[in-house]
C-alpha cells in the first residue's frame, strides 16, 4: 500500500483550475454564489452564532426580570415574547444549524469525498435557514413577534385573532417561519444521507466511519421523518387561525390534544436531533486527547442507532398531565426508562476511553469532559420523568427547565464549544488561545451550574415556569437571584469566546495540518483545506486510518511514529493488527473519480458557483408575507421569483466547461 503523506501537495495547474469560473468564486460575492461545502459550513456556523448571541440576550432580559420578586423590567406581554423567541431561536436557529455547520464542513473530509452529493441544494438549505430566521424576527416590526411559547400549544395559538387570543400576527410569523426552516432542515438531511451512503472513499466501510459521521447520519434520518409531523401541525394551526378551519377548536369538534401529539411526535425526536451530533463530536475529541482508540466503537454506533429508534416512542411523556389514561401512560413511562439504557452505555464507553489514556487536558478535552458530566446530570433528571407521579408534580415547573437545559446546553452547547476549539485550526488555519479557552470553559461550567442547578430546587418548591413575576415571601427570592447571577457568568464566558476569536484572527498562532495529532481523515488535508479537499481520493485501510498512517507498534506494543507519514511495511503492519470490519460500504467507483462532475480521469472538476439558490430562496419570504397578511398581490412576485430561480437553476450547467 502506498501511504498518503500528511500534507498533500495540490495538483498541477493543468489538473485543477480554480481561477477560471463563470461566477464569483473569490471575494465578498463568492459567499452568495458558493457551493463549496466548507464555505457553506462557515456560513451556517457564523449565522447560528449570531442567533446564539441574540437568544442569550433574550435570556438575560428574562433573568433580569426574575432576579427578584415583583420584577418590573418587562411587562407580561414582553416576557411572553422573549421566552417564546428565546426558545424558538435556541432550538431552531442555534441547536439545529450548529451541528449542520460542522457536518457540512467535515463530513465530506471525514469520509474522503470532495463535496456533498447536492452542492447547490446545500446552499439553498442555508439561504432558507437564514431567511426563515429573519422572517420570524421580522415580526418585531411587522405586526407582532411570536408570543405563544416555542411549542405553540393550541387552542391558544390556533384561535382566530377576532376572538381576542394572541392578537397581532405573532403566531402567523411563527408558523410560517418554522415551515420555511423545516424545508431547509429536510434538504440538509437528505444531502447528508445521500453523501454518507454514496460518496465514501474506497475502503471507508460503514463500520470504519468516524462516530461523528454516524451520529449525523442518524440525525439526518430523524430530521427527514420528524419535520413533516410538525409541518402538518403548523399548517393546521395557520388555517385554524386564518381561514376558519377547526382542526384544534374543541367547540367545533376539533381536538387540541391532536396538536400536542403531532408537535411532540416531532419534539422528542428533536431532542435527539440536537444531542446526537454532540455525542458524535465528543466521540471524536476523547480518543484524540486520550491518545487511545474509542472504547467500544461498535457499541457506541449501535447505541446511537437505538436512541434514534427509541426516540419515536417517548413523545407522550410530555403529556402525562393531559389525562391520557393509565395504559398509554404506562407504555410511555416504560419507553422513557428504556431509552436511558443506550444513553448510559455511551457514557460508560466515553469513560472507558478516558480511563488509562495519556490525557492532554486541552480546551476541547475540557469541554468534552464537561459534556459528559452535565449530560449525565440532565439524563438522571430526565429519568425521573418516567415516574408518572413525579412527572405530574414536575410538569410546568422550573424542574423541567433545569432538566432540558442540562441536556441541551450542558450537552449540545458544551459539545459544540469543544468542537469549535478542536476543529477551528483546520477551518481557519489559526489556533484559538489556550488560556482564554480554559477561562471560557470554567466560566461556562460555573455559570451554567449556578444558573440551572438551583432550578431543580425551585421547581420542586413549586415555582411555575412561563410566569413573568412572583410574589415576595414564596421562598424563591435567593435562588432566583443566584440563577440570574449565574446567567451573567455564562454571558461573560461567551464574551471570552468572542474575544478569543478576534484575538486568534489577528494574532493567533498559525496551525499546522495536524495540530492535535488526531486520528481521522480531515486532518490529512492541508490547512487551509483546498476547494477540492483531496488531490487524490484516499484509499482507506482501517478505522482511524490517518492514525495508522502515522503510527505502528513495536514488539512490546508501544506506539512508534512512522517516518514522514508512514512507510508501506509499517502501515501495513499497523493495519494488520486491527480487527476485520464487517460490511461492504466502500465504493471503488467513488464519486469524484470517474466523470461524475468531480473528476473524469483528466482533471478535478468542481461544481460551479451559482446565484440561483439565493434567487430561488428570495421568493419564499415574499410568499410568507403574502400568507401572513393575506395579500394575493404580494404572492405574485414571490411565485415569479421562485419559479424563475427554479427554472434557471435547472438549466444552468452544473460545472464549468473544461477550458484546458
Characterise the protein shown here.
The chain is an all-alpha fold. Helices cover 60% and strands 1% of the residues. The chain is built from 19 helices and 2 strands. It has helices at residues 30-33, 37-66, 76-95, 97-111, 119-137, 170-198, 211-243, 256-290, 297-310, 326-354, 363-383, 388-394, 398-428, 434-460, 477-507, 545-550, 568-576, 612-628, 632-651, and strands at 551-553, 559-561. The protein has a two-stranded antiparallel ribbon with strand order 1-2. Helix 4 runs parallel beside helix 6 and helix 8 (256-290) runs parallel beside helix 10. The longest helix has 35 residues, at 256-290. Mean pLDDT is 88; it is low at 1-22 and 565-602.
Structural class: mainly alpha
| Estimated share of beta-strand residues | under 5%
**SSE string, helix = H, strand = E?**
HHHHHHHHHHHHHHHHEEHHH
How many strands appear in the DSSP assignment? 2
SSE diagram, text form:
Blueprint (H helix, E strand, L loop, with lengths): L29 H4 L3 H30 L9 H20 L1 H15 L7 H19 L32 H29 L12 H33 L12 H35 L6 H14 L15 H29 L8 H21 L4 H7 L3 H31 L5 H27 L16 H31 L37 H6 E3 L5 E3 L6 H9 L35 H17 L3 H20 L9
Antiparallel strand pairs: 1-2
